[in-house]
Description:
By secondary structure, the chain is mainly beta. The chain has a domain at about 20-45 and about 80-110 and about 155-195 and about 220-350 and about 360-380: Beta Barrel (Lipocalin), CATH 2.40.128. The protein is built from no helices and 17 strands. The chain has strands at about 20, 25, 30-45, 50-60, 65-75, 85-95, 100-115, 125-130, 130-135, 150-170, 175-200, 200-205, 215-245, 250-280, 285-315, 320-335, 370-380. A ten-stranded antiparallel beta barrel has the order 3-6-7-10-11-13-14-15-16-17. Strands 4, 5, 8 and 9 form a four-stranded antiparallel sheet that branches. A hairpin with a 5-residue loop joins strand 13 and strand 14 (about 250-280). The protein is elongated, with a radius of gyration of 29 Å. The two termini are about 25 Å apart.
Amino acid sequence: MVYRQFFCISLCLTSNLTIAGTMGPEILPQTHWDGGVNIQVIQPFFQNNPAFYFLNARRDSVTEAFFQVSDIQNQRDVYHHMDLAPEFFLGYTFDNGIGFHTRFWFYNQNTKQSVGTPVTSVTDLTLSFPVSSAAPIGLDIDTRDNNLPDGMTVTTKLKTQIWDGIVSKSYDLSSSILSIGAGARYAYMSQKYNAFESQAPGATLDIRMTPPVPQFITEHKKTLRSGHNFNGWGPVVQLNDQVFLGQSGFSLVGTLRGAVLFGPSKQNAYKNLLVRGTQYGNQILSETAFVQRSNHHQTTIEIVDVEAGVEYSKSLFGGEVSAQLLGVAQEWFGGGSASKSATTGAGFGLPGSGMTGAPQVAGVTSESNFGFLGAAFKLGFCY
């Protein structure tokens, strides 16, 4: 009979020392430590995560009192890319297969997107091309629709952290080892959505006034800043299986984990407007505005993790070294988008009416989902 030590570190942090023979692995009566690092390369995906809303509108007048408006509205989502998400884990297993394990996983990513709007006639309202931001808690900003170049930039930030403390039990199933565990999880999630509008200086008309007022704009800026976060505790359960491929040192590994978290969620948003210039030739033009809203409540978030792949293990350095190549997926149910915006661009009004933008309704939020998808390389050591 050939004797060797076998090392398995699963996502649920359960590992076993085994003898691989013709009848399959058997758990050795030996306690041991295990630990390592898991480097994930993942990309976030959102159910709904608007960055901008675009309007292409046409106004056809028949008479002064009768006209019709047709418009096409489009949503552009926040673009996310692949990024690293490290995980560190450590555990201790007794000779009866019961183990205590902990892990810490985190992910951070920032994004930035910019758009410009077409220059239109200051008086001809036949065509209109405004751009609106998303609307956290009902607050949004938009671009002006006139002869001056205008644009908008949106930045977002996603930050997540997970800490698990798990008690597990391993079972020998002849050609595989099944591990079942349960414990407690702490999770933190925060997202930010910021939008900045800036218009080039120059001469224009304020068509909101009757008759239109000639203006020279020296500074025109709108700013929207918002963020929301969640931190909570709850139970976590996991199921891990490892199937040995003979005595080759290779095995198939898979893990499924689910958690329900309870805790507070907070969202804050504010926007301001700054306009500087002159009107009627020499009259000073100065406009400022500030609006702020907040939303605090208790909520629940469910998180599901899946990992599947292949492992190779070998005796080295007086212990057992293992390496895994995995496909990974994770879903946050109720995590929301960067803005938590419930608007779909329906707040755009008639071209030139000054009524563009999202409905100004406090407390409007959207509890959508987001998740991660990618691959991972996990390296562990058992002693």
